[in-house]
Amino acid sequence: MPQKSGATRAIVVALETEHERGVDYWSTFSTSEFFRTMGRHWSAAEHVRHLTRSMAPLLPALRLPKLGLRMAFGMPDRPSRAEGQISDAYRAALAAGGQAGRFAPPPDTHAPDQARRDKIMDEHSETLRGLTQAMERWTEAQLDGYRLPHPLLGKLTVREMMLFTLIHNRHHVEVAKRRWAEAGLVHAG
Question: C-alpha 65: how far from its chain's center?
Fold first, then answer.
């Protein structure tokens, strides 16, 4: 197994920390609040399902042989951008009308009860755990030497994709907080 770099480890720790913050926030909702839409906007459950759905395709991609990634998506033609640059590009894409598209959570036909909530949160945690474990195989140079497609931002280096995942998880917690307040809703948290 390649030796993991400090930067790789830092990204893994940041993803895990942001995930824990998200889980802490989502846990402040009662079960009925967790499934309640925020005005015209997604419920907390839908935010979490969207985050899981957007991370899930990264698992097999990060586990592919590196040559397969290079053949499928080419080599990066520029250095990886910093977290702030990725965040700015994401905000610009959203401002230009970017939406979740195929990563939007489909209608949930299950009962909105504690068991369903637990399943949604467990799937979210398992997906994040799989993602950080898959990163164990990546070195510093490899993070910058391969790329993956992003539906709004185009081809990103693997480092950029992991930074985007971090930003995206943070973004949805902040959006949920704002939308909950805009809808005039108050909850236990």
Answer: 22
Residue 3 DSSP code: P
Nearest alpha-carbon partner for 1 in 165, 142, 125: 142
User: What is the separation of C-alpha 185 from the centre of its chain, rounded to a whole number of angstroms?
Assistant: 25
What is d(CA 83, CA 54) in angstroms, rounded to the nearest whole number? Answer: 18
Give the residue carrying structure tokens 């970017």: 98
**pLDDT at position 4 over 60:** no
Contact 158, 147 (CB under 8 A): yes
Q: How many helices (H) and strands (E) does the chain have?
A: 9, 4
How remote is the C-alpha of 47 from its chain's centroid?
10
Decide: helix, strand or coil at residue 18: helix
Residues in Cβ contact with 92 at an 8 Å cutoff, skipping those fewer than 6 apart: none
Distance CA 58, CA 99 (A): 19
Q: Compute the distance between CA of residue 146 and CA of residue 139 in angstroms, rounded to an integer.
A: 11
- What pTM did the predictor assign? 0.92
pLDDT at 8: 83
Token pair for 148: 């993956």
